[in-house]
Structures are given as C-alpha cells and as structure tokens.
Amino acid sequence: MSDQPAIKTENLGRIYKIRGAKKGEARQRVALADVNLEVPRGEFFGLLGPNGAGKTTLIKILTTLLAPSTGRAFVAGYDVARQPQEVRPRINMVSGGESSGYGLLTVRENLWMFGQFYGLDTKTTYARIDELLQIVGLADRARTKTSDLSTGLRQKMNIVRGFLTDPEVIFLDEPTLGLDVGASRDIRHFVRRWMDDRPGRTVLLTTHYMVEADELCDRVAIINNGRVLACDSPANLKRRLQREAIFKLEVSPLRNGVLAAFEQLPGVRKVVHSPQDGRSELDLILEADEALGGVVTALNTHGAHILNLQKREPTLEDVFVDLVGMSMTEAEKAGEQELMGG
Amino acid sequence: MFKTFSRSFFPAAWLGWQIESNWTDPFLFLAFSIAKPIASVLILVFMYNAVSQAGPDSPIYSYIYLGNAFYIYVTEVMAGASFSILDDRERYRSLKYIYIAPVSIPIYLFGRAVARFTTGTIAVVITLVAGVLFFGVPFNPLGVDWPMFFAALALGIVCLAFMGIIIGSWTLIIRTEPWFVGEATAAALYLFSGAVFPLSILPVWLQPVGFLLPMTYWLELIRRALLGPGAAAFPTLSAFSNAELFGILMLIAVGFGIVAFVAYRYFDRRAREEGMIDAQSNF
C-alpha cells in the first residue's frame, strides 16, 4: 500500500442534465459542487446527509461508475477517471435498499463467482466465504438460493460480497437502509470489527442515520445540496454546539404561524417542529438556558401546553440543523420539492 | 492480461450457463429447446413446400434449411451477449458490482456469449437432426468436410460475439426499452445475411449491407462444409473459393474486433458520463 491518502477529491463536481425539461425549467441539476475531501488510510469516514444530498453521487464517482463533471478524485492514489483499472482491484462497494444478486444461484455460488472476478483462488474464496458467513450469521443459509432470502439476509450476503475481496477501500452506501434494528446492528458490529482487525483498511460510509454515523465513524462530513458543510470527528462537530442549550419539548398541537413567532424570540437560534399524532415535538437550540423562559411564555400565550420538557446533549442531528437551518427530514422534503419544481 | 482474461471469461461463462440452464425446470427447458427451433424451421419448410414444387432434393431446400438452422446462433450469441448487459443491470442489479471489479467487460460478455453458444448448439443440433430424419435434408456425415466446418463455425461465432459486444456496449447508454435491441438487430440482419435467400434477390443498393456482414460468408462456408458441391444453390458467392471466403471472413472478424473494441470504449465513456452503468431503463 502506498502512503497516498485512501481518498482525495479536489474541487469535485457533478452536474446531471435533466431530460425532457420544458422551456423555463432548469435543464441541469448540481449533484455535487466543489467537494474537497481527504481521507487517510485506516479511517472510518462517514458522509452524512439527507436523501438527494449527493452522497451516492460521490460514491459512484469514487467507485468509477460515474464520471465527474469537474475536478478530480483519487482512490488509493489513482485517478478514478483516468486510471479506473488501477482503482478497481483495490476497492469494493455495498449498496443498501436494493435486492441485487443472482436469485438462481445459492449464497455460496454468488459469493464464489464474485471472488473469481477478483482473481481469488477457489480455496481462499471458500475459506473467506465460510468465515464471513459465520460472522454475519448466514452460515446456515450458504446453500440457499438467493431468491429465497429475506431482504435482510440478502443484504448480509451483499455485505459479505463486499468484504470478501479484502479491499483497501470499501464504500458502503446506506448499507442498513430498509433493514430491521437487529440486522442493522449486526451489520454495524461486523463492519466495526472488520476495521479493528485490519488497520490500514478504509471505509467510506454514507448514511442518513445519525446514530450510525456517530457510533461508527472516526470523522464525518455533513453534506447537503451537493456541498460539504462541515467535516470533523463526531465529538468535535457536536462540540460546536456545546455552548448552546438544546431542549426537546413535547407540546399540545401548535397552530399555524406559531413557529415563526418562536424564531423571533431573543436567544432562540433554531427551532425544528415535528408534528406527531395529537401533539407537536419541538427541538430548540438556544443560546443559553435563560432563553427557555421566553419560549415557555410564548407557548402559553398561544394556548399550547407543555407535555414534556427535556434538556439533552447535542447530537449530529443538531449539528445538521445548526448548519443547514432545518432538520434532515425537512431538507429531504425541500430537495424533493425543488426537484418537482424543476 | 491472461489474469484479466481468466477472471473475466470463466466466471462469466459459468454464470451464463447457470442462467441459461436454470431458468425453468428440466422438462420445460427441454421442451423449449426442441419446440422453439423446430417450430421456426417448420414455418420455412411449409412455406417452401407451398411455393415450390422442387421438393427436398433441390439444393435450394438445403440452402434454406441450413441457413435458417445456423441463424439460431446469431440470435443466441449476438443478441445474447447484449442481453447479458440488460439482465445484469436491470434484472439482477449486479452490473455495477461486476463493472467495478477488475474484469474486462468485453471479455465478460464473451464469456456470457459462450453459454448462449452452448444452448444455441443444442437448438441447432436438434433442428439439423429433425431435418435429416423427418424433413428430407440430405446429409452424409462421411461427405462432410469437418475441419472446414469447425473452422468456419468458430470464426463465425467469434464474429457474432464481437457483434454482440458492439450491441451490448450500445445497450449501456439506451434508457428506454433497450430489451428489443439485440433481437431486433438479429431479426433485421436476417434479411441481409443470405440465410434464406441469396443476396442477389435484394435490391442492388441493399446488397452491400449483406456483403459487409460476416454471416453471409459464414453461412456459405457452413453450407459448403456440410453439403459439398450441393451447396451451390445460388451463384452469388460461387466465384469465391473456400480459402477466399475464409480470408474475407477473417478480415471481417478482425474489422468487427476493432470496431467492438472502439465501440466499447466509446459507449463505456458515455455511460459513465451519463450515469448509465447502474441506471434502470423506463420499462
């Protein structure tokens, strides 16, 4: 392995042309803009952002599936656009939320075949398959046809496929998407253990699950609308909000327009409102505890009753809110509306 | 180079065979393998009987029967190679994982074409046996020039695989309904390949298309190898010796090989620019 960083991007950008755009509508969409990242070898690096933020686009470029529109990207020291044949033996990828794989092959056959594509000899391939299937709890399904596997088990097989080749850099694109809690936990444990056992290997994980990024990643880049807004360790990112006071309130349902009034209150930095069944949830980022009094008074003025109030430590979600001005869910909705509006 | 060939070709051929032989139960597979080729050739046999009084002894009958039987390879190998791209991308959602592996996609397609060649061979053999046993196709195993037959067959299959790679590469960038591309191309080329009638029947301005296609020379060589002098049903290519036909076929094979290489590089670059490697077409 060379001493080059595992991943490096320089002013990386990607623009998609919008097919069938009518007159007056946007003809292109910026998926990535001026992304500059450097991931040293041995790091567990996370890309955190809502759906449509540009995470998958970045992974596609880094894995040689997609050409960048501007800038350059390097994986294991090789230019992904100009030297894809040097990049490919050194990487692998697992995407979540899809049912890839040849359903007519058994789990073992599917995995063996991918081992062959990477030039592994059959003995080594089978030894690794058996070991990895054991670790992810799929050993008893080795001879089951892939089409007979549940979504979670199929995703575990895909995880094994990705790690089977012992790549220098592995890209995990929402690997736990759509999985139940138990399967997600198993996969997180497996990936963490793989990293611990192989210093020098690098993982790039995209996720929109804050807890996943917080639990696994050495560093996290927060990305929205194709731009990297911040990049640091989860602890350092959260430290940005250490001086602020963060409260979670459950109140009776709020009337329209009340939220705007809260944001005008002195000491209130951000308010995120999540309507729930028969109640409202408010996440407040305040400059200091003292600002809470104003919020409580305002709630009373608008006839809302406090059902629950909790002060809590900052999370990566709060960091995202602080950077973007809205929650991850709201950012996703905003992105969808922007797309629909052209 | 050998390593890339080995890890691209052999697993692809193995996968292709698994897909081709396991898509249904053995009984249905056998029925389909027998019924489909025989049905297609029977249509021509009955049409021939309806419009011609010459009977099966006429060289034209063997010309049509063999041309049609061996054209099965065109659909299987050429269309099959391009279909592999779609199968992997759209049905199995695995193309992106194969694409980012250190394999050569053209060689991978070549491997997949080998599996289609195998199933094609089953269909061709069944059609030929049925022709000899039931439909009066003259065939004398002792009179066959077997070395010439196998040499022509191999060269023709290589040409078809190159054509499959060209169409498969093109398929990479087609967004809407790309499933028809391989079979539609095979069907369109049927007209120009001299499979069921000689090129001289085509309008003069269309004949050059036929003369540029490898199938034209390949089918002629196959007929000559299997039937000997009886292959001379039409004078279109009779001026060419076997060696000349082989030479032309060889040149065309090299030409298609170069075009396949260039086409793959071009369409691969475009597919990466347009984000089509893992796209789903609008079907």
List keywords for this structure.
heterodimer, A: 342 residues, alpha/beta, Rossmann fold, Alpha-Beta Plaits, 2 domains, 6-stranded mixed beta sheet, 4-stranded antiparallel beta sheet, 12 helices, 28% strand, globular, B: 283 residues, mainly alpha, 72% helix
Return the structural class of chain B: mainly alpha
Please tell me how large the radius of gyration of chain A is.
Answer: 23 Å
Query: Biggest interface, and residues per chain?
Result: A-B, 31 and 30 residues
Please state the average pLDDT score of chain B: 86
- Secondary-structure element string of chain B: HHHHHHHHHH
Label the structural class of chain A. Answer: alpha/beta
Helical fraction of chain A equals 25-40%
Question: How many strands, which pairing sense, and closed or not: the largest β-sheet of chain A?
Answer: 6 strands, mixed
List the helices and strands and how they pair.
The complex is a heterodimer of chains A (342) and B (283).
Chain A: E1 7-17, E2 28-39, E3 44-48, H1 55-62, E4 70-75, E5 78-79, H2 84-87, E6 91-95, H3 107-117, H4 122-136, H5 151-164, E7 169-173, H6 181-197, E8 202-207, H7 210-216, E9 219-224, E10 227-232, H8 234-239, E11 245-251, H9 258-263, E12 268-276, E13 279-286, H10 291-301, E14 306-312, H11 316-324, H12 328-340
Parallel strand pairs in A: 3-8, 3-9, 6-7, 7-8
Antiparallel strand pairs in A: 1-2, 1-4, 4-5, 9-10, 11-13, 11-14, 12-13
Chain B: H1 2-22, H2 26-51, H3 59-91, H4 95-99, H5 105-134, H6 146-171, H7 180-190, H8 207-212, H9 214-227, H10 242-274
Helix pairs in contact in B: 1-5, 2-3, 2-5, 3-5, 3-6, 3-7, 3-9, 5-6, 6-9, 6-10, 9-10
